[in-house]
Amino acid sequence: MRNLGRILLFGFILFNVVQPHGIFAQTPTLKPTSTPTPTSAPKKGIEMDPAFQEVVISKAEREKPLAITLINHESESIAFDLFPVTFNPKETTSLAQVKLDEADSYSYSLSSYILLPFRDIELQPGEKKEIPLLIQNRQDMPSGGTYVALIARQKRERTSDTTTVLPSISSVIFIHKTGGEIYNLRLKNVSFPNSLIHMRYPGSIKLEFQNEGNIHLIPRGRIEVKDILGRLVAKGVINTASAYVFPSSQRTIAIQLESIAANPPISLNTITVEGTDSLKKTTFVQSDTFLYIHPVLVVILVIIGLLITYSLISWRKRNIS
To answer: Quick one: CATH architecture of 46-157+164-177?
Structure first.
């Protein structure tokens, strides 16, 4: 029994040492550090400003004017062809991407919703020019989201006989046509918890969203983990990068999980994922429970079990002898 008491005391001390808020936890001393002043390097290449914008147009509006600025940061003059395209947004980045085919056969279609006053432009070194464009609210423009881009592609040099990759740049426009929108954003899957028992929390939790509507939406909300006493022990903010979920598509978003307080060594915890979309038209909520066991507690229980087994075996040997 004396050995058992010593092991229990050792386990108690070890558990408090590893706990972030245990009785032996120490607050680290932060040393002030000097942050160097960043120096801005001169820009190079071609720039379109803005690179992305969202436009809301009602059914009653026949058209809406916009302006995009094209800037030449190079040391030589460049001539461009301008053309608008309608495309399907990709889910790989926070903004849509447009892929250009150098063989002039594009997988997207030239947009009939954008009207340009001119189709080519030339910029001198360091020069910037404004490109006015007009969004036409045609009858065939569907309600909800329509995705277009203005593309500026460098003109091919006539003197060159070799095939070259022509530099291009695009400015993406998300058109939101009001009247007839279908808002249907739902949370399909949460990556944690994936089992009944967990001994640690993951650094991030992946949420899978499904947009079954006709308008792009940004999920917003929070993740909360509470212990058996209802205390908040971990939390996360959903979609700090403002990633879109586009119509008729899925998107997986990773959420960083932050530890708030020390968890009891053993607890039946509850995780709740709750939120809405950027337009506050839909809501989602999902809860689950799991058993949390601190790994040090598991080690202590194993040691106690081994000690009890050893004591029982020794006791039986003494009785037999």
So the answer is: Sandwich (2.60)
Band (17; pLDDT cuts 50, 70, 90): very low
Summarised one tens digit per residue, pLDDT across range 129-158 is 999 999 999 999 999 999 999 999 998 766
Higher pLDDT, 166 or 269: 269
With contact defined as beta carbons under 8 Å apart, do 253 and 243 qualify?
Answer: yes
Q: What is the 3-state secondary structure (H, E, C) of the chain?
A: CHHHHHHHHHHHHHHHHHCCCCCCCCCCCCCCCCCCCCCCCCCCCEEEECCEEEEEECCCCCEEEEEEEEEECCCCCEEEEEEEEECCCCCCCCCCCCCCCCCCCCCCEECCCEECCCCEEEECCCCEEEEEEEEECCCCCCCEEEEEEEEEEECCCCCCCCCCCCCEEEEEEEEEECCCCCCCEEEEEECCCCCCEECCCCCEEEEEEEECCCCCECEEEEEEEECCCCCEEEEEEECCCCCCECCCEEEEEEEECEECCCCCCEEEEEEEEEEEECCCCCEEEEEEEEEEECHHHHHHHHHHHHHHHHHHHHHHHHHHC
Looking at residue 4, its pLDDT comes to 46
The domain made up of 183-295 has a fold known as: Immunoglobulin-like (2.60.40)
Distance between CA 229 and CA 36 in Å, rounded? 45
Give me the residue spans of the domains in the chain. Answer: 46-157+164-177, 183-295
Q: The pTM is what?
A: 0.74
